[in-house]
Each structure stands twice: as structure tokens, then as C-alpha cells.
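Translate sequence into C-alpha cells.
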Amino acid sequence: MTKRIKPSRSFASDNNSGVHPSVLQAIAAANEGHVIAYGDDPYTEAAVQKFREHFGKLVDVYFVFGGTGANVLGLKAVTEPYHAVICAETAHINVDECGAPEKFTGCKLLAVPTKDGKITVDQVKPLLEGVGFEHHVQPRVISVSQATEMGTVYRARELKTLASFAHKHDMLLHVDGARIANAAAGLSVELGEITRDAGVDVLSFGGAKNGMIYGEAVVFFDQKLSKDFKYIRKQGTHLPSKMRFISAQFSALLADGLWRKNAEHANRMAKVLARELEKIPQIRITQEVQSNGVFAIVPRRYVTLLQKQYFFYVWNEATSEVRLMTSFDTTEADIGAFVSLVKKTVK
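Result follows.
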């Protein structure tokens, strides 16, 4: 007899969460009969139409397996190897993609120090001093994370400022939107307001962190930028043969506001968690909670003890800053049990 795995929850990552029942139902519904592979199927066509409802009729949408692939291939489509990509030093493309952006694009990443994960035009300006000089890489893309790796969120006007500056200097604005649903929910705006309307050129749209099994989308707001992307995606090993099972998930996520409901719940749980942790004198919240991440200083001697029952990541070893992530399936009971353990442990 197969031993049943005991269900458990943690605050390590929204990647660790389960799958929303509606998404599972959509996969089951797509699992009927045969359809043409590699995206020439009605499920993929329907999902692309859902994206166009949110982002505009002229966007091009391509589905891939994961977030690193979406970022790398999206950047590859709009750069040459002598280009540079400007990003925050905490950006996923800079820290957590094992050098994949550099390897596959050939570009140099120019990482900007930031306390809250957000970069500004004033930080970008000094990096343009070598434009036109053949001994220097040429900045081509500003890449921002929305929400950032610090849980903070760019407002529409901040993105517009970055986009306007980029376009004025023959650059593009790329958004790593692994948690863009959380950002939009936190700002109480529609997805198009912080992408298309803000001047974003290329978007990696995340699904896995918001209730899907796996799958991300690369969205181009200018179809000229995507003219060769079908070849880039294939060479980049991100062309799913049974694409309908990614497409069906996106259709479910983008229908009836499920993307927003999931993100709003995760964001709300993060605020509850932060509020309860703030009541403990030894704990200090370090970032404003604007999405579904809570960053806090926890005395180092207690971290390992807490991790034995609720795993989470240490964000900064030097300061003993930890990251606690909530998900669409986090409950107030989960938070209550964790906070109770923290109160008993941190003395």
C-alpha cells in the first residue's frame, strides 16, 4: 500500500502551493480526444483571446513552460549579444536564473543596487554614458520585476516614467511578471493599466505562483518585436507539444476574475501575517507589504527552530532577514498556527 503523504503548508514560496480546483477542472476538460499539437488547437486559441481581452487585440502571446524560460526568451527576442539589460540587483534574472539570461542572450546584466527592489530613472542614467562607444555594451532593455522580489510594487506612473525614458533612449521596458497578478490586485487596477497602458514592451506573465500547475506566457505589445519568436521559442526548448494543457490553465485563470481572486487572497493573507508578527517585540518587518511577501528580521538563534515546522527562506544571512510568502491557498488558520509557534519560540 502506498503511504499517504501528510498535507502540510509552509511560507517558503507561492511555488510550493497547490493548484486551484478550477484549473484542475480545466485541464480535465481539455483531456478529451485528440487535437493538433504545438499550439494549433482550440484551447490555445481561446487562451490567446483571453489574453487579448486583458491586454489588447494587438498583442502576441506565446506559452512556455516556466518563468526563467519566459524571461530569457523574451529578452533574447529583443536583444543582440552586444547589448546590456539593466535590472535591480535583487532581480530574478540576476540572482535566481543561474546565469541563463547571459548564456542565452549573450548580453551583460547591469545590476542596480536598491533597498526595496525597485529601480528609478536616476539610477539608470549613469549606465548610458557609454552609448555609441564600441568598447562598451549598449543598454537595450530595462527589466523590472512586478511585483519585485522584495514584495514591493511599481505604480503605473512609475512604469510610465521608466518606459518613456527607455523609449527616448532607444531602449525597451521588459517586465518579469511572475507575480503581476499580485501587483495588479495590490494596486486595485486592471492588468492592462500596469502593462500596455504604462508603455511596457515585453511581459513575462506568471501562472505557476497564482494557482496553476506550471506554465508562463511571453506577451509582446508590439508585434514587430515578436516576428521571429516562434523560432526562438523552439530553439530555446520551450515549445510544449501538448500545449492545450498550459492553455487551458490560462483560460481558467483569466476567466471570471480568478487571477484577481487568487492574488487578492494571497495579498490579504500576507497583510494578516505581517500584522500579527508586528505584535511580537523581537520581530521587525522590513518592507511595506504590497503584495504577497513578508520580509522580517527574526533573531538568528530562532530561525532553525521555526524552520523545523514551517519551512521558509532566509533572505539575508548577514541581518537574519527572512522571507515569508503567502499563496492563494494560505488560510488564517495557517497563519494563526505559525504565529503561535513564533510566540512560543521567540523569547
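Note: The longest strand covers residues 138-145.
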